[in-house]
Structure formats: C-alpha cells, structure tokens
Design a protein that fits this description.
Elements (H helix, E strand, L loop, with lengths): L1 H34 L7 E3 L2 E3 L3 H28 L11
Antiparallel strand pairs: 1-2
Helix pairs in contact: 1-2
C-alpha cells in the first residue's frame, strides 16, 4: 500500500512538472509569435485551450507522467529496498 501511494505521488509530481514545462514553452511561443507577427491558433484539446498543437501538449504531459513513474520506481528502490536513506559515512 505504501509503495502504491509513493508511486502515485511521484506520478503526480511528474504531471505537475510536465504542466510547468508546457506552460513555459507556451508562454515563450506566444511571446515569439506576437513579436514576429505570426498567427496564433487556439486549439481546444484535453479539456483546455492551448496555442500549441495537440501533440506538443500531449507530449509534455506524457513525458511528465513517464518521468514521474520512473521517479517513483527509482525513489522506492533507493529509499526502501536498498535502504540508502539517511546513511552518512563517518570520517576517520
């Protein structure tokens, strides 16, 4: 139960990171398009309005979710399986 919760939280963190990267890229694109007089096309995908194509928006969110899954699996292994948390080497 603890492992599942740990991985779900890590996937949530990955989703948030993917959303933040998406927001930064979209903000950059809007500024770039406005400064170069490029047309902005509003796409309605995944329940939100976005100025990036659907595959770019979906790509950022998918990469964020996959990153969260790997983060959760790696973090669980390091912290609970290999017991590397909080170990400090004593200096002689």
């Amino acid at each position: 139960m603890k492992e599942i919760f740990y991985k779900i939280v890590a996937v949530g963190i990955g989703f948030l990171l993917g959303s933040i990267v998406h927001w930064l890229v979209e903000a950059w694109w809007i500024g770039y398009a406005l400064s170069h007089d490029l047309p902005l096309v509003l796409h309605h995908t995944f329940g939100s309005a976005c100025f990036l194509p659907w595959y770019v928006e979906g790509g950022f969110l998918s990469v964020g979710l996959v990153f969260g899954l790997f983060l959760g699996s790696w973090g669980w292994r390091v912290v609970y399986v290999e017991r590397k948390r909080g170990r400090r080497k004593l200096r002689s």
